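BUG-373 | component: ligand-complex export | severity: low

The export step for adenosine-5'-diphosphate jobs runs without errors, but we want the raw record kept on the ticket for reference. Input record follows.
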Amino acid sequence: RYHRVLEENRKLYNQVQDLKGSIRVYCRVRPFLPGQPSRTSIVGHIDEGSIEIITPSKYGKEGRKSFSFNKAFGPSATQEEVFLDTQPLIRSVLDGFNVCIFAYGQTGSGKTHTMTGPNELTEETQGVNFRALNDLFLLSEQRKETFHYEVSVQMMEIYNEQVRDLLVTDEIRNSSQGLNVPDANLVPVASTSDVIELMNVGQKNRAVGSTALNDRSSRSHSCLTVHVQGRDLTSGTTLRGCMHLVDLAGSERVNKSEVTGDRLKEAVHINKSLSALGDVISALAQKNSHVPYRNSKLTQLLQDSLGGQAKTLMFVHISPEPDAVGETLSTLKFAERVATVELGAAKLNTEGGDVKELKEQIATLKAALARKE
Ligand code: ADP
Ligand code: MG
């Protein structure tokens, strides 16, 4: 009964999410890092779906501004809490949906922390990538009487509008023509530890390509793609789902008068691809008939998994540092651009019956669940 209630709860949650549409934006505020002098956070009030930014007078026009999201996570939110709100989306991959999860934000805002975790990984600090894979393997095991799943992964990096396959072990293929997802090595995996091994290979390959001075990871997009093929054991029908987990290049704006050469080239490419991504997501959110996928390698690569039946989640990361307030506001402006239309629609629905009713049912189920515990 307990499991039935849980399952029911999850289904209702999914329905609420579906009513909200296929694009979600979650905001995560990084905590202050240990060992730094104490400052006041520029993030004021945080609630479940919004945050307030307080601009200190020293950094321009003093003021407060609120931003809304599908979900907001404060600096004390744990990796587990963040994952719990991502899980339903991830699970839909096993039902044949395509899913894209992006980590957006300036360098140092916590993108890699959310997707992978800190350098010293423990079970507790593991990010979305590991938890997602664990969950997929766990769920496919639970369904093994009715479904047979095969899972395989690809790892790619996009640097200066060139796609590199990170799972080519013998030689690094540096294709200037660009690479399509189907061309990149697709490696079958049977457990999370298989994937961790591959991720280490990918990480090494990434390092090989980087010049000594560059912290390349902040200037390239990295993408872990998980393909799932499922066969219904009774009917024999098959389904395919795939999930892209994308740690984007740092979104910081570069002062073009101060950089030259490689740095300028990188900045131009990053800028171009992040705005192309923003354009695509906002066109999808507004249900425009033309979606400009072809303006960057990133959006081209993910075209089949953005829009249509696919589900998109953008984690927008911000830092609490007063110094970063300019970047933070620009990050939040990006978030608004990809989310407002969708959130507006969701708000309208809240007034009507469906979402309200589902929320009530969830509250009832949660109460039932609490009594069981
Ligand atoms: P990015 O990938 O956006 O450049 P990182 O994920 O590397 O940023 O984060 C920068 C630093 O802040 C790292 O040392 C990371 O461990 C730490 N950090 C980021 N987010 C959190 C968080 N939510 N909790 C604790 N530490 C964090
Ligand atoms: Mg990073």
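Assignee comment: Attached the raw record above. The mean pLDDT is 85.
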